[in-house]
């Protein structure tokens, strides 16, 4: 692509979606461990793990190293769908609120970042909820079978558990995230 040519919003979104592939490979084991530690002792179950290291040791010993990656498909779907929305919404709003002179305003960054976070979680929450059930071991199967079972047994609302707090956090957290990124980028551009 020639220098100075902007990517289309679809290209930005697809780049975001594809970024989920390497991040999932790195994040999935941590997500699994986090979910197991968060759900142990809940609903009358015993506390099984003394901490993250103990959790890894027990999982690998009992189920093999592959068990650390349980729920990776759901993690990938969550992050790919969410990142597609996240990056394309941010870029679209930022472009639409940036004047012809190209002077990016804090308002454009905060608005774009906030709405990007909301759109990310609007798409990602159902995948995240299913992912957590798979990783906790409370639902056997994969993304589609666990999702279908959840809907059949609990209704469509089961896919959106935790959406309220996620949405309350999404706007301010992501507005701040993008503001920090743009300020840092601007400072680095001046240095180099």
Describe the structure.
This protein has 192 residues and is mainly alpha-helical. The protein has a single domain (9-184), classed as Mitochondrial carrier domain (Mitochondrial carrier fold, Alpha/alpha barrel). 73% of the residues lie in helices and 0% in strands. The chain is built from seven helices and no strands. Helix 2 packs across helix 4. The longest helix has 31 residues, at 106-136. It is elongated, with a radius of gyration of 20 Å. 36% of the residues are buried. The model has no long low-confidence stretch (mean pLDDT 93).
Report how far the terminal alpha carbons are from each other. Answer: 22 Å
| CATH topology annotation | Mitochondrial carrier fold
CATH class: Mainly Alpha
Roughly what percent helix? over 70%
CATH-scheme architecture: Alpha/alpha barrel
Reported for the largest beta sheet, the result is: none
Q: Note the beta-strand portion.
A: under 5%
Regarding quaternary structure, what we see is single chain
Radius of gyration: 20 Å
CATH homologous superfamily descriptor: Mitochondrial carrier domain
Shape verdict:
elongated
Look at the helices and sheets and give the structural class: mainly alpha
Q: How many DSSP H or I helices?
A: 7
Provide the domain count: 1
Helix/strand order, N-terminal first = HHHHHHH
- Mean pLDDT equals 93
The parts where pLDDT drops under 50 for at least 5 residues are none
Q: What's the β-strand tally?
A: 0
């Amino acid at each position: 692509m020639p220098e100075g040519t902007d990517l289309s919003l679809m290209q930005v979104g697809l780049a975001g979606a594809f970024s989920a592939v390497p991040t999932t490979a790195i994040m999935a084991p941590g997500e699994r461990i986090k979910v197991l530690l968060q759900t142990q002792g809940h609903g009358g179950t015993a506390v099984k793990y003394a901490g993250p290291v103990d959790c890894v040791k027990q999982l690998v010993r009992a189920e093999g190293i592959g068990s650390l990656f349980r729920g990776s498909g759901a993690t990938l779907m969550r992050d790919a769908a969410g990142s597609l929305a996240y990056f394309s919404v941010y870029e679209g709003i930022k472009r639409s609120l940036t004047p012809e002179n190209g002077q990016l305003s804090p308002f454009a960054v905060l608005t774009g970042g906030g709405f990007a976070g909301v759109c990310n979680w609007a798409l990602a929450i159902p995948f995240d909820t299913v992912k957590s059930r798979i990783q906790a071991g409370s639902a056997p199967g994969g993304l589609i079978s666990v999702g279908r079972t959840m809907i059949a047994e609990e209704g469509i609302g089961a896919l959106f558990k935790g959406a309220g707090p996620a949405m309350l956090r999404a706007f301010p957290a992501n507005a701040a995230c993008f503001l920090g990124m743009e300020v840092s980028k601007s400072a680095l551009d001046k240095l180099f």
